[in-house]
Amino acid sequence: MQTRTALVTGAAQGLGQEFAVALAGHGYRVAGLDLEPQPRTAEQIPDYVELVGDVSDPDTVREGLERIIDRCGALHVVVNNAGVYPAKPFEETTLEDWRRVMRVNLEGPFLVTHSALPYLKAAGWGRIVNITSAAVLTAPPTMVPYVASKMGLIGFTRSLAAAVARHGITVNAIAPSMVRTATAERTVGADGGFEYVRSGQAVVRTQVPADLVSTLLYVVDEGSGFLTGQTLNVSGGSAYL
Ligand SMILES: NC(=O)c1ccc[n+]([C@@H]2O[C@H](COP(=O)([O-])OP(=O)(O)OC[C@H]3O[C@@H](n4cnc5c(N)ncnc54)[C@H](O)[C@@H]3O)[C@@H](O)[C@H]2O)c1
To answer: Model's pTM, two decimal places?
Structure first.
């Protein structure tokens, strides 16, 4: 089988870094797009294609994809992982807060996927994976824009799956629980957040990025061509889709 290429957004740290390294470990050529440089990811992946820019900027995304094709010749897998999850009381949430979350979490996946699609179609095979959240079901009251954006991503997943299936492309979403990443530790996981979420899970430990890897690899697997439009809830039993 030819070497396949995967693009992971938000690959500088956290889940995106874990996904990028896991895909490289399974033989993929990997590119990452992040607002930040990705030295920790790059040092673990031979021939890593590091793209620095905003997933919600059309020119950045288009140029980034052109660079991937220049360097790798093709693109097969897109992992829409870049996201933000600010917590704030609803009454204090501004229109700009709302728009920022929608821009990164929903417009970003739209733009990246839309720009990537011609390349996936040219390859005649593709896997699009959207990272949503079990928060769409546990619905924390301080994350209204986030929950709306991640629920939107599930709708995007379902409808897009129907739109692209004839090209041999599947589209699925993965919904983690609260995961111990540096950002979560600084924000939603601080002040007892991890303990609170853990107490609602059947699996009584905090989720770590490695807990999501087997699901990602399953979804992108050659043999998973009949799995599409689905949201895989990998949240330790905290929420049931
Ligand atoms: N950590 C959790 O508890 C948790 C739980 C459920 C879902 N998720 C989702 O998983 C994904 C990753 O979460 P994480 O905890 O690893 O986050 P993180 O903050 O550790 O990493 C996200 C990366 O995305 C990048 N990024 C942010 N905005 C961007 C933009 N506009 N363009 C390009 N890159 C951008 C950041 O620079 C960062 O490197 C997010 O979509 C998040 O909503 C996280």
So the answer is: 0.98
Using CA atoms, how far apart are residues 133 and 143, in angstroms rounded to an integer?
Answer: 12
Alpha carbons 178 and 134: distance in angstroms, whole number: 8
**Nearest-CA residue for atom 24 of ligand 1:** 10
CB of 104 shorter than 6 A to ligand 1 = yes
User: Coil, strand, or helix at residue 13?
Assistant: coil
Under-70 pLDDT residues of the chain: 1, 240-241
DSSP letter for each residue of 2-52? PPPEEEEESTTSHHHHHHHHHHHHTT-EEEEEESS--HHHHTTSTT-EEEE
Separation CA 125–CA 99 (nearest Å): 33
User: Is the CATH number of domain 5-232 3.40.30.10?
Assistant: no
pLDDT of residue 239: 74
Does 83 contact ligand 1 (Cβ within 6 A)?
A: yes
